[in-house]
Amino acid sequence: MIMTKHLLLTFALAGALGLHAAPTAKESGALDLARQLNNAFIEVADKVSPAVVVIKVARKESSVDLDDPDNPLWDMVPRQFRKQLEEQRDKQREQQRKGGKPGAGREPVFDGQGSGVVIREDGYILTNNHVVEGADKIKVRFKDGKYYDAVIRGTDPQSDIAVLKIEAKGLTIAKLADSSTTRVGEFAIAIGAPFDLDYSVTIGHVSAKGRTQVIPSFGERSPGASMDQDFIQTDASINPGNSGGPLVNLYSEVIGINTLIRGMHTGIGFAVPSNLAREVADQLIADGKFTRAWLGVGIRALKDDEDYLGLIKGVSDGVIVTQLQPGGPAAKSDLKAGDIITAVDGVAVGTAVQLKGAIRGKKIGAPVTLDVHRTGKNIKVKVKPEAWPDDTIPVVNRAPAAPAEKDTQAYGVTVQTVTKALAEKFGVEVKPGVIVTEVEPGSAAERKGIKPGDIITEVNQKPVTTARQFKDALAEVNAKKGIILNLISKGVSKFEVLKESGE
């Protein structure tokens, strides 16, 4: 009885003080969604990681001359990678000093590392060309710790894609997505081995698509001039060692192969889109090499050339032909510098990336039909693509410009009618047109890269063969809009738009 009264008193006191047990609060829907997203990331990592490999590379001692500042590798690799390469060089030299001649009586040293992803269950692995370039021996390690010796099935430096082969069956593979459906803003997950930290998973977003000029072009011989640059940009953390590893979406599909970063800790990384990687990899697996169709033209998007866009009518989208390589497929056709290509075999193109993609996989020697806009008219031009040449066209050496009679001068350029003597003086072939004899420093012509020895063949798409015709053509020009010059420079047909300074 006493106990009963005591309990009743306790309950009454607790009620008075508000100490009664509160019901469990219902969790918000937002928290539940966050947990689902968290689990999604975990599931992607669990599903894809078994298909990711760590690539260990032992390079030939002579494969890369890191002391040569002109080595194109320096243009290919961001600055943060150079320190890593210099450290590898120092290690190689120390090993050579201790062991005598390279490779004499000692095991190869696997001091290079990257990542890769299995794309076929019978042992084909996708990675970057720069990860395995110059490799003497290659090993790959899976997440379960198994090692395999690997051989290079094929490489394509222009896309920076390579395929390795190991002797294995029944491997877990990663599915390649249709990267054309990838959208800016969606989640992106990078898996790889940055700084020897194997199977690191970083999460970010797709920041942009179709990035070009990521690898700078310093002239026709630089790597950036010929590379297929159609990168996916991401802010998922990518570092040295991630190269060759997958960039994955929330469906556990590979949307890109991680390739480059722009500065350390910037949150700007780049991946080769999976569609391009697949196209190259399939041919490397089948043939051991990738044969790229080539038109032999310089190009840029019309929408990126405000000056030219303001001088033409009847077209607002397309790709401008800025130059024709001598002896190339386009030079053998009716295509001209200054033409605007709007479609390839009926498929519209509006950027350089789209035009390259439309031509890349075409059959060598089979004609393609280009929809072209020229001088206000829409025409069709047939071109037979050829295989991409191994070497670039050599530059023609020219003598320095000598003082010349100023027959015609405008826009900072002085010209004379082409003669055999002038052609010999400047080291060029005789062509119908007017030859540039002087270029005024700081002028519109100099800013556009026009040099003495260049031969101007057309003004506003009308032929000129004498200095007088050139002068008459200029008299018809609207100085505020500028002029279109078609010219031959170093043997290459091209065009430029000039405007007087201050106009």
Q: What is this structure, in a nutshell?
A:
With 503 residues, the chain is α+β, with helices and mostly antiparallel strands. It contains 12 helices and 28 strands.
Strand percentage, roughly? Answer: 25-35%
**How many individual domains?**
4
Alpha-carbon Rg, integer: 31 Å
CATH-scheme architecture of the largest domain? Beta Barrel
The coarse silhouette is elongated
Instruction: Count the beta strands.
Output: 28
| Helical content band | 10-25%
**CATH class label of the largest domain:** Mainly Beta
Discrete helix count: 12
Low-confidence stretches: 1-19, 62-76, 217-225, 391-407
Distance between the termini: 107 Å
CATH superfamily of the largest domain: Trypsin-like serine proteases
Task: Provide a descriptive summary of the structure in words.
The chain has 503 residues and is an alpha+beta fold. It has four domains: 49-165, Thrombin, subunit H, CATH 2.40.10; 175-275, Thrombin, subunit H; 293-387, Pdz3 Domain; 408-498, Pdz3 Domain. It is 23% helix and 31% strand. The chain is built from twelve helices and 28 strands. The protein has helices spanning 2-16, 29-48, 73-76, 79-99, 129-132, 223-226, 274-287, 306-309, 352-360, 420-426, 444-447, 467-475; strands spanning 52-59, 112-120, 124-128, 135-141, 147-156, 161-165, 175-176, 187-192, 200-211, 231-234, 246-248, 253-261, 269-273, 293-294, 297-301, 319-324, 340-344, 347-348, 368-374, 377-383, 386-387, 408-410, 413-417, 434-439, 455-459, 462-463, 483-489, 492-498. Strands 15, 16, 17, 18, 19, 20, 22, 23, 24, 25, 26, 27 and 28 form a 13-stranded antiparallel β-sheet that branches. A six-stranded antiparallel β-barrel has the order 1-2-3-6-5-4. It has a six-stranded antiparallel beta barrel with strand order 8-9-10-13-12-11. Strand 27 (483-489) and strand 28 form a beta hairpin. The chain is elongated. The protein starts with a helix and ends in a 5-residue tail after the last strand.
